[in-house]
Model the fold of this input.
Amino acid sequence: MHHLTEEQIKEIKRMLMTMKEKLLRSAEEQIKDPSNVTFEGGDEIDRADIESDRFITFRIKGREVKLIHKIDYALMKIEMGTYGICENCGAEIPYERLKARPVTTMCIKCKKLEEEMEND
Done:
């Protein structure tokens, strides 16, 4: 983390906290939304539409939960002093990349290699 200034770290930490707060607020709003209440009645098509909407909502929530975990992990790494170091090769991750994707754990080179391996 020596390649990042104290101000850069503070800025990224603020970004992470803001992202997390927005996700948590969104989750609270979804819980309070009356459209999440079970709907009994209607024909099979109505029930299928409701189930399809529910499935999409749960998928979105699943992604949000994963992102919250990534945010918490990044915040933990900041506290430990290991943030901004590629977990694959140990290289310093440039500030510009961290600012664009604050939850990243890999440098561009390692991320590209990982994606190539997934596509094979």
Observations:
- The CA atoms of residues 70 and 103 lie 6 Å apart.
- The helical segments are 6-32, 44-80, 95-100, 108-119.
- The two ends are 33 Å apart (CA to CA).
- The chain has four helices and no strands.
